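JOB MANIFEST
job_type = single_chain_structure
chain_count = 1
residues = 336
[input]
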Amino acid sequence: MASLKRKLIVLGVWLKELFRFCPISKLKADKENLFLVCGHRGSPVNEPENTIPSFERALREGVNSLETDLGVTKDKEVILWHDWNPDELVALIRESGIEPEVAYKPDFPAPFSGFRNKISELSLEDFRKHFNYVKKGESNPVNSHIPTFREFLDWIKDKPQIKYVFLDIKVPKDEKEMILVILDQLDLLTKEFNLTTKFIIETFFSEVLEIAKNKYPNLIYSLDVEIPPGFVFLPRIHSTIKVAAQNQNNVAIILRPRQITIANWMTFRRVIWYDVRRRLHLNKKPDSTKIDFLIGCTINDKREMECLIKSGINGMQTDYPRRLTNLANQYNLKRN
């Protein structure tokens, strides 16, 4: 009986929250700590994602951080590219042009061409020759230059306004050792270019995280959290702060769910609201790992951005950097 009563209470709260967009009674914006306005793959609503022109556009739109995706070729070149395997579900969706907001879609080789392979099965030369981007609604590739990690860091070395770069590691768990190719290059190039920018290593796989931490324990890490499809009645179950604390990470990142999660925005804001309080509580404990940032991604709606700022989030990855920059200025958030 007690269990049934509890379930009814949980359901009642869920139904009540369903019709409330942003029930923040008191402004809790974090104005004391650095707020990260992060260009997700640069500014992909204007330029091909993960390219230097995309990052330059994001910089002009006021970002103080960037996010990019990293893969490793057969000849051990680290490149900026989102899809490790062009035949994975997400890659196929992106190839079809269904991914919202972005202006360009990835252009993969045709099936049975001999080149529609994983990044790790192609040389840099072959990858650049057969992979590119196509503007949505058009058919011809735009011949964008796919940067190497070295080229990206060479570009960023004289950009002091970029405080952090989120490195979304696309290495799958069945090729987990590839993470060390990326981190070895990061270590080498950070010293070579004398970089002051800080880097946050993102992955969804605990196996990849473990290998990375074993060799480079002093880097900044996040084991990203994705809210599952369907109904989520207890948001705290998907706390990204809890995951960060368990793994002793300094950054907690959670992805905003899409339509396959019922009441996706309501669910997401409830998780963020819970995690803001949990982070404040944990950071007061002298024996716990300090969690510097609670980050939401990818947040593109202006009303959602504003609600998350009011809730006390520490930063967002967005395809619309200018939109978030304007709100950060409006709420006098610290960006330097």
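[summary]
The chain has a mean pLDDT of 95.
The longest helix spans residues 264-283.
exit_status = 0
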